[in-house]
Design a protein that fits this description.
Blueprint lengths: L1 E8 L23 H17 L2 E9 L8 H12 L5 E7 L5 H9 L3 E6 L4 H8 L8 E6 L2 H5 L1 H11 L3 E4 L11 H17 L14 H6 L11 E4 L4 E3 L8 E2 L5 H5 L7 H4 L4 H4 L4 H5 L4 H21 L4
Parallel strand pairs: 1-2, 1-7, 2-3, 3-4, 4-5, 5-6
Antiparallel strand pairs: 7-8, 8-9
């Protein structure tokens, strides 16, 4: 049974202009309570009619914590999906209202904060506002600048015990594309964490590949099947990087969102097909980053071998 994955945009408001942000609008619009109610109720119907065992909601923006509407949406999700295994994660920006973050934490929501090229201490201070009982996903964007200061970043990660995930973005632009150096950097980082008895979460590996090895999943994501990106006006996309294909008011929005995702023939003959499964459908359709996926997969295979040899449990 699959997970239903729903990403809801709460607001377009944000005072920053981070290059890695995937939001395509900047204005003061915020989702209305009526629209939020309708979206969540419709998603509950999708869940009830589907063969799902859990649901994951991601709340995004803009900066979701610039408005208390994130609390309303969180409470609504918990109420409508009561008794359902529900993971709720919200993107955390430097511009966030920390009072709202604390109230959100009390509701049991998790936060995810990315590191672009910001001062490390500033980011760590924001991270300390997140309750430790909640998993804090700490994304380090693999820019050239971040790789030069990676030892300093890892020092702080170990000191503060923040889960770490290295990531390389597909869009809107890539600041650094030396694949070999990125993979070698990732290897150094995770070797350091292993030697420091740093406990991993399933997401603590670069480029989202290790947890696929661990859980032996049979597809990459819910693209065209059980993933819904819904903006604050109710438009629905299969992926947040593509154009809308339906609206939440459409009676047949589930049919409109479905598509058959066909991989290129080269994917099926690749020795890492069992791990990659074609990678990100959007990136694959644009013929982007196949080399990156391949080299990272090679690295992950070697890491798994080393862990098994050293008796370190995954």
């Amino acid at each position: 049974m699959a997970s239903l994955k729903v990403r809801i945009k709460i607001t377009n408001k944000c005072t920053k202009d981070c290059w890695y942000c995937l939001s395509d609008e900047r204005n003061d619009e915020v989702i209305t309570e009526e629209m939020a109610d309708f979206i969540i109720e419709r998603m509950k119907k999708v869940y009830d009619e589907g063969n799902f065992k859990r649901v994951k909601f991601t709340l995004t923006g803009g900066d979701p914590f610039e408005t208390e509407k994130v609390l309303y949406v969180t409470e609504k999700i918990k109420s409508v999906f009561k008794g359902v295994q529900t993971l709720l994660v919200t993107d955390l920006c430097q511009t966030a209202n920390l009072d709202i973050v604390k109230e959100y934490n009390k509701l049991g929501g998790l936060c995810m904060l990315s590191l672009n090229e910001d001062p490390i201490e500033d980011i760590m201070q924001i991270g300390l506002e997140v309750q430790r009982k909640n998993i804090f996903l700490y994304n380090v964007i693999m820019t050239e600048y971040n790789m030069r200061r990676m030892d300093e970043i890892v020092d702080k990660v170990i000191e503060y015990k923040f889960p770490l995930r290295l990531c390389h973005l597909f869009e809107p632009e890539c600041k650094y594309t030396d694949i070999k150096e990125m993979v070698e950097c990732a290897d150094r980082v995770y070797t350091r964490l292993e030697n420091s008895d740093f406990r991993y979460s399933e997401y603590n590996y670069p480029f989202n590949l290790m947890h696929r090895m661990k859980y032996k999943t049979d597809n990459y994501c819910g693209y065209g099947k059980d993933y819904f990106f819904i903006d604050l006006k109710g438009n629905i996309r299969r992926c947040m990087m593509e154009k809308a294909v339906a609206h939440i008011f459409d009676d047949d929005f589930q049919e409109k969102i479905k598509c058959e995702y066909k991989l290129p023939d080269k994917c099926y003959s690749c020795k890492h097909y069992d791990l990659c499964k074609g990678g990100c459908p959007y990136a694959n359709s644009k013929n982007k980053y196949c080399e990156l996926q391949y080299l990272v997969a090679e690295h992950m295979k070697k890491m798994e071998y080393r862990k098994a040899k050293d008796g370190i449990s995954l």
